Amino acid sequence: LFVRVAGNARKFVPTLQKALQREMPGTTYITVTPFQEIVSPMMQSFRLGATTFVAFGALALLVAAMGLYSVIAYNVEQRTHELGIRLALGAQPRDLATMVLSDGARVALIGLAIGVGVAWYASKWLAPLLFDVSPRDTVVYATASLTLLLVAMVGSWVPAHRASRTDPNIALRSE
To answer: Helix/strand/coil (H, E, C) string of the chain?
Structure first.
């Protein structure tokens, strides 16, 4: 017999036992177990798997941000002379920052296009692993894409800020 209650099921156990005991007088003792206690041990492996996926996803985001930061910082370092010339010729620091951020956005958008294409193709193999979510859910794709784009912009911000603070005299003497 399943009984649905509103709120914490543990609070209703004594009440249900008394009510069911009156309805079933021949039974010596009525056992009432909340459904959560029955299902919880079986769900533990799924919770552990989901937590592991979240942890690895966060780690992948961190590695992606660090990788993009490294590539863009190296690119800015290699272009120090060019940035100094641009500043000496009248470019504004925010123009340099915008240029570096747009380079990071371009790299991120190319990576997103490739990644979304591969994920869309591979989604047919992921369908059995998902519960109540379509493997081609556009909201999931949009959320993941926006998150990755945000991570790319955060990873590009430090090199962009550094590029905007380049001293033209030091930059021109660097080579």
So the answer is: CCCCCCCCHHHHHHHHHHHHHHHCCCCCCCCCCCHHHHHHHHHHHHHHHHHHHHHHHHHHHHHHHHHHHHHHHHHHHHCHHHHHHHHHCCCCHHHHHHHHHHHHHHHHHHHHHHHHHHHHHHHHHHHHHCCCCCCCCHHHHHHHHHHHHHHHHHHHHHHHHHHHCCCHHHHHHCC
